[in-house]
């Protein structure tokens, strides 16, 4: 059931008796702009660290204990042209508490403090809070860049998605973070509260009408008019290739293909099956040929970047095998375009994808994530319908989407010779 709290603010209830917890996911969505991602990423961390009423980590832990160990976390994530700050909290269902405790009211009061009364000093974020989280975010960005595989993928996205959302780093950059001031994050916070589209999802065994009244009272957001887009098609540009060398034990490769198929395209179920055939599963061509038959790598995979209309192939190999690996990857893509796909592989792939969808119904986080995708895409697409769509995919459908795919970029991060001797 979906209800409206205010213009631009919706509340979606997912009724389920499978879980002993109740989870709320509060999502603030706006445009994915490079100049804003760093401050939004930092803001997401600061909001759940501590707040005005609970101004120390000890006090935050104490209130969580009072609420029978409720959890509170945040993340920043992109959906193509949209950037999302998610605040998520989980608490035990009052049905399993024997004491007469108005836990849901206290829980929503706590979330009200976190969202509407952050730790500020003279209407600006507290300096210690700002500096601590800035340091933590900087460490996260550096760790991401120091990881060879992550760095390789990031650089491939920058090449393939030049001047497009794919190139925008979800956590932001070191350069923009170092320049960031607490006034910037304060302004970002007020903008988020007043201007972002807000999608609230609650999952659990709940009294929807009673909880709606409580959420609407405690999370009293104002009306807003939001204009943002999500999915788009990566524009194929002139093929981009780049290579760097770093002190690392192996060479990493990332290849990006433009799929020419959006996440709402009727061909999208076929694209999911195609990705499974190519490199998502242990039965996939890339895994079987590059890893099993030729022993060129420990792992290799393909993944859809669905909201950007892209497909990523990534692997780690020995430097002397670069040309052979690239050649084998391209051959697997070509055989798929030519329709060299057995009926057994097609059916195995469909069964594995359907199994994953069915298993997601047993995980609260997956259920919430799936519903958030529906909300962002402004559609009603039950998992059962998704399963039927995958089941109906034919070999001809799969070949059709493969033939639309275009190789747009390759980035190689090579191991420096003798660096590890």
Determine the strand fraction and express it as a percent band. 15-25%
Which strand order does the major sheet show? 1-2-8-3-5-4
If you average the pLDDT, what whole number results?
94
Global structural class: alpha+beta
Would you write up a description of this structure?
The relative contact order is 0.16. By secondary structure, the protein is of the alpha+beta class. The longest helix is centred in the N-terminal third of the chain and has 20 residues, at 127-146. α1 (34-49) packs across α7 (182-195), α3 packs parallel to α8 and α10 runs antiparallel to α11. The radius of gyration is 23 Å and the shape is globular. The strands form 3 sheets. It has a 6-stranded mixed β-sheet, sandwiched between helices. A 5-stranded mixed β-sheet has the order 9-13-10-12-11, with helices on both faces. A two-stranded antiparallel ribbon has the order 6-7. The chain has helices spanning 34-49, 57-66, 103-116, 127-146, 148-160, 174-179, 182-195, 208-218, 268-280, 285-293, 322-337, 343-360, 364-376, 383-391, 395-404, and strands at residues 2-6, 9-15, 21-31, 71-79, 82-92, 120-121, 124-125, 197-204, 240-246, 251-258, 297-305, 310-317, 406-415. The chain starts with a strand and ends in a 6-residue tail after the last strand. 46% of the residues lie in helices and 23% in strands.
């Amino acid at each position: 059931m979906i209800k409206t709290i205010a213009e631009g603010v919706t509340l979606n209830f997912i009724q389920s008796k499978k879980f002993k917890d109740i989870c709320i996911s509060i999502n603030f969505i706006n445009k994915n702009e490079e100049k804003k991602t760093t401050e939004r990423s930092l803001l997401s961390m600061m909001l759940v660290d501590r707040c005005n009423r609970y101004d120390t980590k000890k006090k935050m832990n104490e209130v969580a204990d009072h609420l029978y160990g409720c959890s509170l976390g945040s993340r920043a994530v992109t959906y193509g042209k949209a950037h999302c700050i998610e605040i998520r909290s989980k608490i035990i269902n009052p049905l399993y508490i024997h004491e007469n405790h108005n836990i849901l009211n206290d829980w929503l009061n706590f979330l009200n403090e976190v969202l509407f009364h952050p730790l500020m000093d003279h209407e600006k974020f507290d300096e210690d809070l700002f500096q601590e989280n800035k340091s933590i975010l900087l460490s996260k960005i550096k760790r991401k860049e120091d990881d060879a595989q992550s760095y390789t993928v990031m650089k491939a996205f920058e090449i393939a998605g030049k001047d497009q959302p794919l190139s925008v780093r979800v956590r932001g950059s070191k350069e923009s973070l170092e320049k960031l001031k607490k006034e910037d994050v304060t302004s970002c916070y007020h903008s988020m509260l007043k201007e972002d589209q807000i999608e609230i999802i609650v999952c659990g065994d709940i009294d929807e009408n009673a909880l709606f009244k409580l959420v609407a009272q405690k999370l009293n957001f104002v009306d807003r008019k939001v204009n943002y887009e999500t999915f788009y098609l990566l524009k194929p540009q002139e093929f981009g290739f780049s290579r760097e060398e770093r002190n690392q034990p192996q060479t990493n490769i990332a290849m990006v293909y433009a799929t020419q198929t959006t996440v709402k395209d009727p061909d999208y179920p076929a694209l999911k099956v195609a990705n499974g055939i190519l490199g998502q599963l242990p039965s996939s061509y890339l895994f079987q040929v590059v890893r099993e038959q030729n022993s060129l790598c420990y792992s290799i995979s393909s993944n859809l970047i669905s909201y950007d209309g892209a497909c990523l192939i990534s692997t780690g190999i020995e430097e002397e095998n670069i040309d052979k690996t690239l050649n084998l990857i391209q051959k697997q893509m070509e055989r798929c375009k030519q329709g060299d796909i057995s009926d057994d592989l097609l059916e195995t792939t469909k069964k594995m994808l359907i199994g994953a969808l069915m298993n997601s119904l047993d995980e609260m986080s997956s259920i919430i994530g799936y519903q958030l995708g529906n909300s962002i895409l402004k559609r009603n697409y039950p998992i059962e319908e998704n399963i039927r769509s995958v089941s109906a995919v034919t070999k001809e459908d799969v070949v059709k989407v493969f033939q639309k795919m275009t190789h747009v970029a390759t980035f190689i991060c090579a191991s420096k010779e003798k660096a590890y001797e």
